[in-house]
Design goal:
137 residues; mainly alpha; 2 domains; 7 helices; 2 strands; CenT-Element_Derived; DNA binding; DDE-1 domain-containing protein; DDE_SF_endonuclease_dom
């Protein structure tokens, strides 16, 4: 977690891939930070990944005042402007940070211990108000 943005959480499934169980753990982290309640529900817009649609996730969301809206496949670039204006540039910045790290650490592999700082450096460049405002809408 060294070098990650403040308030970050770490979750690494054994398989390395997101699962319904891992997503439920993330959902608990999300609820604990957003703290939705009966008077202030939260709308969470997600893609249509299978891990987002398990009965455990949907039940937990419902019981904790989170309304899940699942967008149709291949539409996030139209329905989620940050997907284009923030996360698009993030991919480029992340690759640049990986390249920088590899030049500074020749013949070494990036490990899970390095990813947090590399992510943070790229995220701070991509997640800016200017990029958010530049969204396609």
């Amino acid at each position: 977690m060294e070098g990650t943005p403040p308030g970050s959480s770490q979750l690494v499934p054994d398989s390395g891939w997101i699962s319904s169980e891992a997503f439920l753990e993330w959902m608990k982290f999300f609820v604990s930070n957003v703290r939705p309640n009966e008077d202030h529900k939260c709308l969470l817009i997600l893609d249509n990944h299978a891990s987002h649609r398990s009965i455990d996730v949907l039940d937990y969301a419902s019981q904790n005042n989170v309304i899940i809206l699942s967008v149709p496949p291949h539409t996030t670039h139209k329905l989620q402007p940050l997907d284009v204006s923030v996360y698009g540039p993030f991919g480029t910045y992340f690759q640049n940070e990986i390249d920088k790290w590899q030049k500074a650490h020749p013949a070494q592999r990036v490990t899970l211990f390095d990813v947090g700082k590399i992510f943070n450096n790229a995220y701070l460049k991509a997640a800016t108000p200017t990029n958010a405002i530049k969204g396609p809408y």
